[in-house]
Prior knowledge:
Elements (H helix, E strand, L loop, with lengths): L2 E11 L4 E13 L8 E2 L9 E7 L5 E14 L18 E9 L2 E9 L1 E3 L5 E16 L2 H4 L17 E5 L3 E6 H7 L8 E3 L24 E3 L11 E6 L3 E6 L4 E6 L6 E6 L9 E2 L9 E3 L1 E8 L17 E2 L4 E7 L9 E10 L4 E7 L2 E8 L13 E9 L5 E9 L6 E14 L6 E5 L9 E7 L6 E4 L7 E2 L3 E3 L2 E7 L5 E5 L1
Parallel strand pairs: 18-32, 19-30
Antiparallel strand pairs: 1-2, 2-9, 3-4, 4-7, 5-9, 6-7, 8-9, 10-17, 11-14, 12-17, 13-14, 15-16, 20-28, 21-28, 22-27, 23-26, 23-28, 24-25, 24-27, 29-35, 30-34, 31-32, 31-35, 33-34
Amino acid sequence: xxxxxxxxxxxxxxxxxxxxxxxxxxxxxxxxxxxxxxxxxxxxxxxxxxxxxxxxxxxxxxxxxxxxxxxxxxxxxxxxxxxxxxxxxxxxxxxxxxxxxxxxxxxxxxxxxxxxxxxxxxxxxxxxxxxxxxxxxxxxxxxxxxxxxxxxxxxxxxxxxxxxxxxxxxxxxxxxxxxxxxxxxxxxxxxxxxxxxxxxxxxxxxxxxxxxxxxxxxxxxxxxxxxxxxxxxxxxxxxxxxxxxxxxxxxxxxxxxxxxxxxxxxxxxxxxxxxxxxxxxxxxxxxxxxxxxxxxxxxxxxxxxxxxxxxxxxxxxxxxxxxxxxxxxxxxxxxxxxxxxxxxxxxxxxxxxxxxxxxxxxxxxxxxxxxxxxxxxxxxxxxxxxxxxxxxxxxxxxxxxxxxxxxxxxxxxxxxxxxxxxxxxxxxxxxxxxxxxxxxxxxxxxxxxxxxxxxxxxxxxxxxxxxxxxxxxxxxxxxxxxxxxxxxxxxxxxxxxx
Length: 498
């Protein structure tokens, strides 16, 4: 049995609403079990120690935000780590914190895994780091809300409303005939309210919409200018899949709505005719970037198994009898020479550390290491989850991601959580609609000219960075290319459709 031990020296700076803890770790490596303050070993032997700290939190009614800054590291010899599970190590120390109360006082409970695993596989011990505690916002904003700042009742309390559901984000269509079939007495005055499958923030202190909000509509009225038979409305709706840029890995990672497979909107004719999208503010400056390709995004995630019949995390394929599964992806308009990035999340329940092997087409990409757990103790973690990112160069638009669980014994079992895939595709409107974004053109001071191919004067382009308030893009058509230029100091999202 091998463990790493350290002593903690803390120099606190006591402030009311901003608090810094300077941590110096005096490392002491020994081969025998030894207990010491502020060190925590989770789930048995052959694990790495956590630094723990209970810090008094004086701003009552305020949420803490804890951040960590590493100031000194030292490389650890491979021999010292032999036999110790390293599967949880990432590019930065793992930081967890929570707010607790004890004897009527508030405390921030901080837990840090003071190790870093570099891209080359080397492991660094964190010798010195800073913990910065800051207040976020009031824990109970409702108590301090001024009278009249919240709706007295929902918009749905009066009038005639009809619910429509969407399964994916994009442009959706309702015809005049469909509106009539719903029972609208005046389809020409149609309006739609809702936010689709947008998840409410988990933190109460974060802002959220109090009631349903109207969304802009594109109303096609035909040559006579009157909304009637044969006409339709178009609107941008949000489905249950959301993409976020992970700054550490550089990938877009998908997130499923935890509680719904669909987004819902509410249609009425009692609020007057809806307005269309406002025009986006374009730039007349000289572009710093020309965008003729975009970030292709796709994913695989099945929600079939909840391992402990509790909580919101669900898994897909089980790796028990069949230990290998293959998942097909197709990259439309793939840009040659651009790597495909693959992010895989998997879990395993095993008495020892185990691995998943990840491949693409006929090439082996790498492995995912997952910690073992105590199978005989009911209080132990049921299964551990881990993830890795892989890069792959291919000459094919088809990518078959292969996942194999290297089961160490018959009592071990694995599960796939998800696969996120990023590639690069040509910015071409080959179908009825195309959602696109370009991470490479985003940055301070950047001005980007976007060039959408296979366009004509009939296409429409909206910016949907704020999906509740899409904006119309007044592009310039040159042949079959729709050009528009705007500031891209932040990530911006668009959708082109016809």
